[in-house]
Amino acid sequence: MKIERLKTDLLIIGGGTAGCYAAITAASNAAENKGAGLKILVVEKANIKRSGCLAAGVNALNAYITEGRTPKDYVEYAKKDADGIVREDLLYSISEKFNEVTAHLEKLGLVILKDKDGKYVTRGNRNIKINGENIKPILADAVKKLPNVTVLNHVNIFDFSVHDNRIDGAFGFGIENDTFYAIEAGAVIIATGGAAGLYRPNNPGFSRHKMWYPPFNTGAGYAMGIRHGAEMTTFEMRFIALRCKDTIAPTGTLAQGVGAKQVNALGEVYETKYGISTSERVYGTVAENLEGRGPCYLRTVGITPEQEESLLKAYLNMAPSQTIRWIENGTPSKANVEIEGTEPYIVGGHTASGYWVDTKRATTIEGLYAAGDVVGGAPQKYVTGALAEGEIAAKSAVEYIESLSALQQAQGPDISSVNLLEKISEEEVTEHVAEIEKFLGKRINNTFEKARDEGGDTVEHLEEEMQAAMDAYAGGIKTGYRYSENQLAIARKEIEKIEARVGDLHAADLQEVMYIYELKERLTVCKSVIAHLAARHETRWHSFAENTDYPEKDNERFRKYVNSRLENGQIKIILRELTAEGQRNYEHHH
Amino acid sequence: MSIIIDQGKCIGCGRCHDVCPGTLIKINENKKAFIKYPKDCWGCTSCIKECPVHAIRFFLGEDIGGKGCKVHTEKVKGEKNDIVRWFFELNDGSVKTIDIDPKESNKY
Ligand SMILES: Cc1cc2nc3c(=O)[nH]c(=O)nc-3n(C[C@H](O)[C@H](O)[C@H](O)COP(=O)(O)OP(=O)(O)OC[C@H]3O[C@@H](n4cnc5c(N)ncnc54)[C@H](O)[C@@H]3O)c2cc1C
Ligand code: SF4
Ligand code: SF4
């Protein structure tokens, strides 16, 4: 393995939606200001052209302030949907940017549907219609054009370098070039998205990755932050999506596009019975099934041929499997579309799990900023919210770097912010390299395949065991998303047992080493999810956090954020008061 | 659900490798693409849309109700701009197509 040391002013980890936009913002900010020499490095485990949530395309911009509405309306909506547990300052700051980032996307080349007068056509109260098939290549092309941005594709980041609670870089490895990277940076933005694959998926066999959230977003950002003591919030508010059965394709296009209602096997519309919040829609479907009125469907029978054609096309632009399904098995005008809940995901762009940040998107680790699905406190963020957060985090990080270099200039002639920081020592590099070599060391006589043949542990086995434990004991599909304290205690033990076996895994190359780190990340996130589920002694959101020991809502004790921080290897739970109505600013008190 | 690559057609350009969000596709010594981790495919179809010689097919798989339909896309000349034509090769030998104009927004 080659060892390479890199230096940059701003390191962006994850070149997805938020990461790309952070790079675009930081670069243009730098061009306008004095920091023209600012060096920006984007490190992406895949290739920014099609990585992350946007790979297949998206169907609409789900968060937009339509005519006659205000950012306040959006904040109120998101707050109501999450039953109060949101950060108003975060929601306001993104809502006020939705339209601006949308206009920028259009300028970059995104096709947005307009009426005769040139106004965007809306879908419901908050959405606008687009052709989102190529949204990621559009963002990636914009990044590639920036002169002071370097992109490292196919490099997986697996650890931060933190000294005295200040970040000064990160460690990674090239999954295809046999290279280890130690990267020093003035400031870091973490934008690795959420976590899929913690729970047993809907289709655990050959099509195990036919899941809604990208299986390649494995919670790296959460895990690295947790291990270095960053404060995290609301991991108990899991996101469970209501999706088309088997293909796990989104249902919003059917509900909002052709007005398809949720009906049970008897043809009864049941959504009004349980409420229409995101979690209630899932819960209603679970409840109808439990009470023997399943399966449930979206009622599409009877739609016109034109509607059907538009649906088939719309799905090709975001979830092509569903169109194939219709072509193979009968189209939606002839048969209603069966729906099911997915396995739970941890995703700060839909629900509120992730880093606890201040309004500037600074985490509780100095110099570390966060954006997108990895950030907690602001649900219903979606694409435009991730872009907005990328912008906010980039501006804050650049400001921080400038304050460092101002300090630096006062001390000497070198203006790079990096030199001021504690450097990554040789010992730290050696330590991280040794950890990787340990997994690889066995590749000579015991490859991944051989280990599997011999019945030893493989990443695949351990991942399945983890998913089975979470499914059965931490509120997966198996239990209708419910869990009790006793079950959670078993889940915790099972996860710890699996964690103890990770050290003995083998890898044939660095891609397989990445699979080992992904498993480790998921296990770390699982432990935090379990701790959070156990800490909220109430049921505020059906299905998302359905605690059978505490089936009622308890506003008195739990109209609060449940936060956590790792202290001496133990997850410490911190209950925090909600931000005030209309609050625009929140600062950390270290 | 996964993809299959027809190595007879593949010209080894590496574009499918570059766009896969899971880096699941590799190029072998003979400059032919192959999917190294077929069970890890997410079904995003990025690779299929990228292949210049239409060597890649996407399918659903029996475990999620697939019936053997094989899917790929081709760029064809439209009146104003290139359009994307999706081909669905069904089990009975018939082929269905759907045209998508990238300059046109979704209706829903
Ligand atoms: C299938 C799907 C459909 C959606 N449809 C819509 C829609 O129609 N409308 C809408 O508004 N929103 C939609 N969303 C939500 C929206 O796409 C996301 O909320 C948003 O894109 C998240 O942006 P992000 O930057 O946080 O994550 P991502 O865009 O996923 O970026 C994370 C990036 O980090 C990289 N990464 C992860 N770990 C590492 C590591 N260890 N080292 C280096 N890189 C790493 C990943 O490869 C990825 O590129 C959809 C989401 C999904 C999954
Ligand atoms: S469909 Fe997507 S995930 Fe599957 S191999 Fe192709 S690019 Fe990779
Ligand atoms: S894109 Fe097509 S031609 Fe190019 S390497 Fe992949 S399969 Fe071969």
Which structural traits does this protein have?
heterodimer; A: alpha+beta; Flavocytochrome C3, Chain A, domain 1; Methane Monooxygenase Hydroxylase, Chain G, domain 1; seven-stranded mixed beta sheet; four-stranded antiparallel beta sheet; 18 helices; 21 strands; globular; B: 108 residues; mainly beta; Alpha-Beta Plaits; three-stranded antiparallel beta sheet; two-stranded antiparallel sheet; 9% helix; binds flavin-adenine dinucleotide; binds iron/sulfur cluster
Describe this structure in words.
The complex is a heterodimer of chains A (590) and B (108). By secondary structure, chain A is an alpha+beta fold. Helices cover 38% and strands 18% of the residues of chain A. Chain A has 18 helices and 21 strands. In chain A, strands 1, 2, 7, 8, 9, 10 and 17 form a seven-stranded mixed β-sheet that branches. Chain B has 108 residues and is mainly beta. In chain B, 9% of the residues lie in helices and 33% in strands. Chain B has helices spanning 15-19, 46-50; strands at residues 2-5, 25-27, 33-35, 56-59, 70-77, 82-89, 95-100. Chain B has a three-stranded antiparallel β-sheet with strand order 5-6-7, with no helix packed on it. The longest helix of chain B is centred in the first third of the chain and has 5 residues, at 15-19. Chains A and B meet through β4, β6, α7, α10 and α11 of A and β7 of B. Bound molecules: flavin-adenine dinucleotide and iron/sulfur cluster (SF4) (2 copies).
